[in-house]
Please model this.
Amino acid sequence: MENKDTSRRQFLAAAILAGISAGCSSKKNPFQGYAGDEVKASGETVKLLSVNGEIIEMDKAFLKPVPDLPPVSNSEARKGIEGKKFVMVIDLSRCKNVKACQSACNHMHQVHPGQNWIKVLPMEDSDHTAPYWEPTTCMHCDEPPCVKVCPVDATFKRQDGIVLIDSDRCIGCRFCMAACPYSTRVFNWEEPVLTKEVASQPYSCESSMPQKKGTVGKCDFCPDMTRKGELPHCVSACPNGVFFFGDMNEDSVTNGAETFRFSELIKEKAGYRLMEDLGTKPRVYYLPPVNRNFPFESGLENENADDKKNHPK
Amino acid sequence: MKLNNHHKLFIIILFLFGTAISNINAQDSVASVSVLSVHYFLPENKIPYVEVSTKKKSGRKSEPIKGIPVNVYFNEATENNLLGKVTTGINGEGRVALPASFKATWDSLTEFKFVAVSDSSGGVESLSSDVIIKKAILVIDTTSADGTRTVTAQLKEKKGNEWVPVKDIEMKVGVNRLGGILSAGNEETYTADSTGTATAEFKKDSLPGDQKGNIVLVAKVEDNDTYGNLLVEKTVPWGIAFTPEKNFFDQRTLWSTRYRTPYWLLFMAYSIVIGVWGTLIYLVTQILKTRKMGREYDRNLSTQKSG
Amino acid sequence: MENSTSLTIEQITNDLLPRKFRKRGMIWTGLLILIALVGAFAYYRQLKYGLVVTNMRDYVSWGIYISNFVFFVAISLVGSLITAIFRLTNVSWRTPLTRISEIIAVSAITFASLIIIVDMGRPERLLNLFIHGRVQSPIMWDVIVIGTYFCLSLFLLYITLLPDIRIMINAKDKLGKRFSKLYRWLGTFWKGTAAQEKIRNRSITILCIVIIPVAFSIHTVTSWLFATTYRPGWDSTNFGAYFISGAFLVGAGAVVVAMYVFRRYYHLEKYITEKHFEKMGRVVVLLALLYLYFNINEYLVPAFKMKKPEAAHLTQLFGGEYAPLFWFAILVGMIIPIAIMLFKKGRKPLPMFIAGVMVVVGAWFKRYLIVTPTLLHPFLPMYNVPPSYHHYFPSWEEWAIAMGSLAGVLLIITFFARVFPIISIYKTLTDQNETEQSS
Model:
């Protein structure tokens, strides 16, 4: 019984600290990796062996690789995670148009077939400049034109920098789609194709699932993943390490394998943002396609038939 | 004869076409393979666990399979050697820690073989996989001498009753950040030298930490063939204090919520609406006045008639 | 001013009272109802399957529903033009035109609101606009001003109708029982006493003063739905004035068409005289020249610079895929009508009617050209999308709904003419009295 109280006290202390601390995980839970300490204690304990041969009693909930986090309420989802400022860096010198990011994102969010929240665009700034592949996600702008024009607060800016959509509030006027200069938003023109499991789960802004007919959808920086301390699906899926994701308040971005200091990375590699002069203040930085890992042409192999016909001139 | 040659050509083309089609179909079916993998983890030198993961690989893509019951055994897959059972979760992963009953075996040996066997009730054929590891701990330490800070890490294995550092182990030494470890110095990984110590000079100055300026240093051994995965942390006050933004939702901007409309906009909108609707309401009352006048007129008319 | 021959009160009243529909009226109404029903069926399909029944997709996310909306808001400005501006500037020949323009205004603004609801992906969440509305959004501004303008226009129509209702209540024997209950409910309190008249006159004047800035604001705010975005063709500081001048033009054109139709089918030649057409012709040609001026500003200036995002858009309009439609809208919507109306011969009823129809048709296509081509030139290339996303031509459901909404506007006007006098009897009588007194 005493052990139970200790672990519960520890759990509460961890939960409070988790809310305030930025970037460091308070190691109250030796079992869990780097995930948030908001796991619900199940109450069931089990006796386990430590490496030294000691016997320690632990709550069963902490054994799960994917923690059972309590569902986030709508008002919490609108506020966002305190103390974080998510940022993404896309390294254009590494992109080969593999589109693993696109398929992972489409699969995990059950995006309607034919639509993509991530587009990998063949860009050529002008006639004599080099062509390159440019993956675009939602820029999660700090002065988002989409949020400015939404009449019902269905899209909103959170304190952690993420711009989310509330599909329970959206009236489907599509003004945000007209306002976004990056053309990143898609619309659910018909009933979305969902698995039974996803269709029956309660709607959460953070997972953006299940999508609803007649509402707008877009890349959400996977807040449900970052709450657990994991990286967005596109970042983990890319085989060439193109996407870097991190917290500006920690000054660090990672693609899973490599971690860099964000300020250093942008300075050294001359990072820039898209359409800077529009004043939207996007949160996605690009590293210019210098010292390419792959020639542009190697990405053409992966172009599907429709895109080949409509290849931008 | 011409006809024969044409026939031959036609048959050859048909054959090639046929094989091409069957090849395309073969491409789709060659792929899907179910894989069970086993790994050993020891976080913070506390409770070690064995993680099993079931995946379906098709070509380059791999998808996790959930709901597969897996049994983890020590050394061989027999009833007596069962360490634990787990059903893979949403990520296709499950963890089994060592039960207290295993203590005697754990204390007596230094090398262990963990065998994982999945049963076919999850819809996938029975698979088996194993991993062999040596018992070890990972320790991290820090030194500060004339302005330079150094982080050292040692992987120690059990030799008799002592923990002895192991040389030539590659590990990551750095600062804990979201989703990864930021290397302490300029190198991505550090290798333990002949004394079994990996030394990293801490070069990340002015790194933002928590509100008190603390950062968490991390040493990590990843996917080592002999020792598995180990991780250890240490909190040090080597960062700069970070104050979180408290008033994010107080700002009044064009992209705030409806409760934080900029004052100038509120003023303009309300003055126009009040001005116009005020006038309209006034006019409606005026017309209602004429209604009263009309009723009075009717009454006067009827009293005139009767009177 | 004066009618060539002075008419008796009885004659005027007889001519102007609403009449039953004869064969042509019935066919016209039946046709409109049929078109409206087809539109309703198309909307049912849209509610069932979603907006996928339209041909709007992720790039062209606004199509003819929105261009129809802009068109209707534009036409509804005419109420304030003819009634308010002409009254405040003492234009004496406005009398036969005021009620026509007021009902066009009310009817058009009603269907503007309806078509915008049709365009919504989630129409059942309409109340969210009021419960969760954000004042920062240009759509909220549009909702507020359109709602206000609707109320103001309806009220203006009502108080100018009051004296005529009294005339119709008194003419019960000629009109029959059909709508007498309605007339009595609306205006039995109106006796025409001097005191009532004083209040009414003052109210109309105040209303006219207030309705002008509101009318200006509805089309300005509608233009800001486009001008507050970054897109080429929309990112223009000119949009407010450009849209308003276009609105006055198309409204005036619509009034000319209505003038001709009512004059011909109700035999109102003594009231809507050739002089009226001549004067309206001058007004319309002036408005057309003004709109042409704004168009030149809107297209010539960016074409001089040919900034990258605008270059492709302008090239497509001037010489590319949309060139036939663009030049059609300019020629038929502005230039040819100007050519017709600059000459006195062209300001006769029939040429004016043709010019009016051209103005309205040209204006509809002009609104379409404002909404769709811009959306086909996003900043980032259209890629990783199905081939249907690269083009836009409305589907039959969209056409049916658009035509249905147009039929709805015409139905409201038709029914109004059936129930109420389309020319203000009271005002006509008052005018005649004044001219007789002054001569």
Notes: Chain C touches chain A through 47 residues (CB under 8 Å). The two ends of chain C are 11 Å apart (CA to CA).
